[in-house]
Design goal:
Belongs to the eukaryotic GSH synthase family. Its cofactor is Mg(2+). It comes from Photobacterium sanctipauli. Pathway: Sulfur metabolism; glutathione biosynthesis; glutathione from L-cysteine and L-glutamate: step 2/2. The protein folds into two domains: 17-365 and 435-501, no CATH class; 366-425, Glutathione synthase lid domain (Dna Ligase, domain 1), CATH 3.30.1490. Helices cover 34% and strands 24% of the residues. The chain contains 15 helices and 27 strands. The strands form seven sheets. Strands 7, 8, 10, 11, 15, 16, 23, 24, 25 and 26 form a ten-stranded mixed beta sheet that branches. A four-stranded antiparallel beta sheet has the order 17-20-18-19. Strands 5-21-22 form a three-stranded antiparallel beta sheet, with no helix packed on it. A hairpin with an 8-residue loop joins strand 18 and strand 19. Helix 4 (97-110) packs parallel to helix 10 (305-315) and helix 5 packs antiparallel against helix 7 (196-214).
Length: 502
């Protein structure tokens, strides 16, 4: 006989009852399929997730599928316009020490002299071939429609979790159709296909084989993932590695600290790794913060010099690389602002037609540079709740909202202004019906869930390398509307998926 303790239930708004066994088995499915976060003691917990998916209008979704590869095409060409990167981002680099370091590395890699108003490339010693694995994050604003939140060009992960979330919801629908129907937002909605794990691996494998073919090497191509020490988001990474292995690609994981002593040059500028041999693809899941380059044991006069030079060393070899230093610069918040403010016809510089430029512009939200005039306008005229203040940081914790913006602006020194930007705040549609969030095995009803939608793309040497024209699946992270931080690891976000309605 089942004990009372094991039959705990939660009542839904529709008067239905959800047996805790359902949520327990869903959590077990998540763990079994790698949808997990590593705990500090080496154990794992499931990623938080929704019981049933969000709904999205089909025409909005189709528009994003159309525009996102064009954005990647644009960023791919901007990232290889090295003089433009140097001249357009120099003020930001002076205001943000980390990006200042990236700019100096960029100059070193591409033989660019120190810039005043114009930069010239003296030489191009960089032999790396750019593999742009990008996640473009959107919110579907109630008034403005779907708009870009940010470009992610380095450590743009969780594509595998995106595909697994869609599979989890399919599992829920198959196993407990009545429960699924109780919590789905639209009963007539159809799931949006998500092949994020497969297509990212496919695109990277294409690049790996192209590099390998240039050297006429036999055997398996080799993929090197550069990771952080003691990070918790390892299962998402391992899911990608398992898919590579299924496609015949060998996988290796190293930190920058390890690579500093393990990389060397082979014949014909081949990148080599001690104990492994030739490397065909390098994928950075680290490198977007100073901490990734910090090696206290080296006691360096210039902090982070040795490990950042490891990144330069990689760029000087013939290897498919994501993210290149220039890709990281091209996906900065400041570059997003500059592209937002740029007239459509100027996009022709990077090979976009006027129609493609208009398409990109259709999803770029208003942004404003921080200067004394902007600060005066914001404090005296702006609706403060219609704006977000952002710096150049990646991940959560880098945004300031509402009334707090004036206080932060007052704290900034003029020399810090160029590291920040104001962006139109997006207010996405709240889910029409409540849903259940599952976190640490516990169920919570959320009445005001909103979603952030990230679309993945993969381009190699400026060309799409997926079976879907460069598109490579999606990631949905949902959160209560009242919460500002929607990260899966550090915020109140939960994994979700998309169903389409007409």
């Amino acid at each position: 006989m089942t004990s009372e303790k094991n039959t705990q239930v939660l009542q839904s708004v529709e008067g239905q009852w959800l047996d805790k066994q359902i949520s327990d088995e869903a959590c077990e499915w998540a763990i079994m399929h790698g949808v997990a976060i590593k705990n500090s003691d080496g154990t794992a917990r499931h990623c938080p997730f929704s019981i049933a998916p969000m709904s999205m209008k089909r025409d909005v979704y189709q528009h994003l599928l159309k525009v996102t590869p064009v954005i990647t095409k644009l960023i791919s060409h901007v990232s290889e316009d090295h003089g433009f990167l140097q001249s357009s981002l120099k003020e930001m680099a002076q205001a943000d020490p980390f990006f200042g370091r990236l700019m100096s590395l960029h100059q070193q890699v591409h033989g660019i002299s120190q810039c005043d108003d114009h930069c010239e490339e003296k030489a191009l010693p960089a032999a790396r071939q750019p593999l742009l694995l990008m996640r473009t994050d959107y919110m579907d604003d109630r008034q403005q429609g779907a708009k870009v939140i940010e470009f992610n060009g380095i450590a743009a992960g969780m594509g595998p979790f995106g595909q697994r979330a869609a599979q989890l919801h399919q599992y829920m629908q198959n196993q407990w159709p009545e429960t699924y129907a109780d919590w789905i937002e639209e009963s007539n909605a159809t799931p949006a296909e998500n092949r994020g794990l497969e297509q990212l691996a496919y695109g990277i494998a294409v690049a790996a084989r192209k590099i390998q073919a240039e050297f006429n090497d036999g055997g398996q191509p080799t993929f090197l993932m550069v990771v952080q020490k003691n990070e918790d988001n390892v299962y998402d990474q391992h899911l990608l590695e398992v898919e590579f292995q299924r496609q015949g690609v060998r996988t290796v994981r190293r930190t920058f600290d390890q690579l500093a002593n393990q990389l060397y040059s082979g014949e014909a500028n081949r990148l080599m790794l001690k104990g492994i041999g030739a490397v065909d693809v390098v994928y950075l899941r680290a490198g977007y913060q100073y901490e990734d380059y910090c090696a206290p044991q080296l006691r360096e006069e210039i902090c982070c010099h040795t490990l950042s030079q490891t990144r330069v060393f990689i760029e000087q070899h013939k290897v498919a690389l994501n993210a290149t230093i220039s890709q990281q610069l091209a996906t900065s918040k400041t570059m997003q602002m500059l592209l937002t403010m740029m007239p459509e016809h100027e996009f022709a510089r990077w090979g976009l037609s006027i129609e493609e430029a208009k398409l990109v512009k259709s999803v770029l939200a208003d942004m404003r540079a921080i200067n004394s005039e902007t600060i005066d306008w914001f404090n005296s005229e702006a609706d403060k709740h219609e704006w977000v203040l952002k710096n150049q940081g990646e991940g959560g914790g880098h945004c300031v909202f509402g009334e707090d913006i004036s206080g932060r602006l007052a704290q900034l020194k003029p020399e810090e202004y160029d590291a920040w930007a104001l962006m139109q705040r997006l207010y996405p549609h709240e889910r029409d019906r409540p849903t259940l969030a599952v976190r640490d095995g516990e169920l919570t009803q959320v009445d005001d869930l909103v979603s952030e939608i990230g679309l993945f793309t993969a381009y190699f040497n400026g060309e799409p390398v997926t079976e879907l024209g460069g598109y490579a699946g999606y990631l949905v992270r949902s959160k209560p509307a009242k919460e500002n931080e929607g990260g899966i690891h550090s915020g109140k976000g939960i994994l979700d998926s998309i169903t389409l309605i007409d």
